[in-house]
Design a protein that fits this description.
The complex is a heterodimer of chains A (113) and B (116). Chain A is mainly beta and 113 residues long. Chain A has strands at 3-5, 10-14, 19-21, 24-26, 33-39, 46-52, 60-61, 64-69, 74-79, 88-95, 101-103, 107-112. Chain A is globular, with a radius of gyration of 13 Å. The termini of chain A are far apart. By secondary structure, chain B is mostly beta strands. In chain B, the strands form 2 sheets. In chain B, strands 2, 4, 5, 6, 9, 10 and 11 form a 7-stranded mixed β-sheet that branches. Chain B has a 4-stranded antiparallel β-sheet with strand order 1-3-8-7, with no helix packed on it. In chain B, strand 4 and strand 5 form a beta hairpin. Chain B is globular. Classes of the chains: A mainly beta (113), B mainly beta (116). The A-B interface holds A 4, 33, 37, 42-47, 50, 91, 93, 95-106 and B 3, 31, 33, 40-45, 48, 50, 55-56, 59, 89, 91, 93, 99-102, 104-105, 107-110.
Chain lengths: 113, 116
């Protein structure tokens, strides 16, 4: 079975600082994809970043980057230069051969001005 | 439309009533997913359509839940004889590709169902 674990229910960061959100996963598949989604209070989930498991290079999208440790099955999200608009629930998700995403329980990120 | 549209945004039902939730995906998107998100939890997969074909319904919690996408565009999630445990936000997502887990999913804002 595929599982995704987010062990940080809540995190807080000062504006302009850097924060790292943790995610671990488990899967028996060799070909899979990992995602971070952002869910603001309006509830519309937005893709932040994705990583193909076969790629060794960590994905980056502007201020967002991941630390993908395949052997450890770890997939953390780093947000640099945090902005007030980054405040949201962040979900880590795993996708594989089946056409479904498995989501973690989420981390609520607060950004302090 | 520009994004995934869901209606109604909010629905209050008495226990035992039937409800229907609608999803209008992005035009041309092949894949359509329904997820259930309980309060404080991550979304949980319910069912998946590729065009009009329902390829996976393994996440539907009971036979009271039924989904359809008859013309390969708009989808409806129907819940019969609603129970209190059905209270949740129901999210719809669509993807351009047939293999939905590979491509980016575009989510709607969800339909919040409250069963009294």
């Amino acid at each position: 079975a595929q599982t995704v674990t987010q062990s940080q229910p809540e995190m807080s960061v000062q504006e302009a600082e850097t924060v790292t959100l943790s995610c671990t996963y488990d899967t028996s598949e060799s070909d899979y994809y990992l995602f971070w989604y952002k869910q603001p209070p309006s509830r519309q989930m937005i893709l932040v970043i994705r990583q193909e498991a076969y790629k060794q290079q960590n994905a980056t999208e502007n201020r967002f980057s991941v630390n993908f440790q395949k052997a450890a099955k770890s997939f953390s999200l780093k947000i640099s230069d945090s902005q007030l608009g980054d405040a949201a629930m962040y979900f880590c998700a795993l996708g594989g051969a089946t056409n479904k995403l498995i989501f973690g329980t989420g981390t609520l990120l607060a950004v302090q001005p | 439309g520009a994004g995934v549209s869901q209606s109604p945004r909010y629905k209050v039902a008495k226990r035992g009533q039937d409800v229907a939730l609608r999803c209008d995906p992005i035009s041309g998107h092949v894949s359509l997913f329904w997820y259930q998100q309980a309060l404080g939890q991550g979304p949980e997969f319910l069912t998946y359509f590729q065009n009009e074909a329902q390829l996976d319904k393994s996440g539907l919690p009971s036979d009271r839940f039924f989904a359809e996408r008859p013309e390969g565009s708009v989808s409806t999630l129907k819940i019969q004889r609603t129970q209190q445990e059905d209270s949740a936000v129901y999210l719809c997502a669509s993807s351009l590709r047939a293999s939905g887990s590979v491509g980016e999913l575009f989510f709607g804002e969800g339909s919040r169902l409250t069963v009294l």
